Amino acid sequence: MKKLLLLLILLLLNSIANSESVKIIARRPTSLVTFELNTENSNVTELKTVLNGIIDKFSTHFVVDVNQSTVILVDPSHQQHDRIQVVKIGDSEVSLNSAKTINRQSGVADELISSQSYDWITKKVYIAVDRVGTKKSGRIEACPIDSNDGCTILLSNDFGMHSLVVDPTEG
């Protein structure tokens, strides 16, 4: 795992060092924005809102499929449980209201999605779910973003999940 993390950091540093600008998607209080960071002079250019409607009092996890121009985000504002929403982004600003919701087989009030990771090979988002309250447990779910099949529970155990990474070369 340490070797994989080191490899990812080296690849990121190499791409930044060999590029004059890096395109970044970031969260602002109620939106997601894209901008380019010039690595030579640290200037930010082309700040543009691509998604609005995020509620600012909640933490929002998101991952991006750059090839499909898709943002997959956890919307914690839902009353019952966290929702996973898939939004196509492009040149014009879109609203979170236009998002497709991924159906989870479970999701109760005392569960929180603590982390997510996207596998662009299989087009699935993997989520780590923590259950708080009297029975603490954790699990990993795999959710296809291109179908309405819902999420599949891959692992359920009595340990807490706090972060999750998918191997970028093998899925």
Structural description of this entry:
The model has no long low-confidence stretch (mean pLDDT 76). It contains one helix and twelve strands; from the N terminus they run αββββββββββββ. It is 9% helix and 45% strand. A four-stranded mixed sheet has the order 1-2-3-7, with no helix packed on it. A four-stranded antiparallel sheet has the order 4-5-6-8, with no helix packed on it. It has one domain (2-157). It is mostly beta strands. It starts with a helix and ends in a 14-residue tail after the last strand.
What is the terminal-to-terminal distance? Answer: 14 Å
SSE string, helices as H and strands as E: HEEEEEEEEEEEE
Taken from the alpha-carbon principal axes, the silhouette is globular
Strand order, largest beta sheet:
1-2-3-7
- Radius of gyration, Cα only, in angstroms? 17 Å
| Biggest beta sheet summary | 4 strands, mixed
Q: Pairing-aware structural class of the strands and helices? A: mainly beta
Mean pLDDT: 76
Number of helices: 1
Number of strands: 12
Q: Structurally, how many domains make up the residues? A: 1
Task: Estimate what percentage of residues fall within beta strands.
Answer: over 45%
Helical amount: under 10%
Spans where pLDDT lies below 50 across 5 or more residues: none
